Amino acid sequence: MKDPEAVARDLCLRALTGTPKTRQQLADLLADRGVPEDAAETVLDRLGEVGLIDDEAFAEAWASSRQSGRGLARRALKAELRAKGVDDEVAATAVLAVGDDDERETARRLVERKLPSMRRLDRATATRRLMGMLARKGYGGGLAAGVIREALDADGADDAPVAGFDDLDEDALLP
């Protein structure tokens, strides 16, 4: 490698052409390509100075996009950001933009979208499947239970109690 900084700069600029990346993602790319660590740090520092790498802006955009597009809860958003190499504090700050009301409304929309396919099922089975869907998206048990109970009641699902479910206290189970 004649000029490792030039190689690192080219690799980073090519990687940033498609989608924004975190500093850690670019550092991993450079390490995988055998770029010496000192050259990688120099290039990454410079890209940060000129604003091409901004983990805070990345985290905010990611959280907003994934919450509205995939319906992920704050817990899942934080986990995804950490997996992408975003600092815990930056991730926590980014997901603060998703408020309690936003999270509840998103969970409600997810359940309403899934509810028509649950109408043929008994209430216990529908509840279990809806709880699983919301849990996979990072929603806590209390919030999920409340949203599902409201949706099933509004939809006129049979009123047979679901063991353990109707006794959940929504506020006690929030993360």
TrEMBL record:
One of its GO terms (biological process) is regulation of DNA repair. GO terms for cellular component: cytoplasm. Residues 102-144 form the RecX third three-helical domain. Keywords: Cytoplasm. It comes from Blastococcus aggregatus. Residues 54-94 form the RecX second three-helical domain. Residues 8-47 form the RecX first three-helical domain. Its main location: cytoplasm. Coiled coil: none annotated. This is Regulatory protein RecX. Belongs to the RecX family.
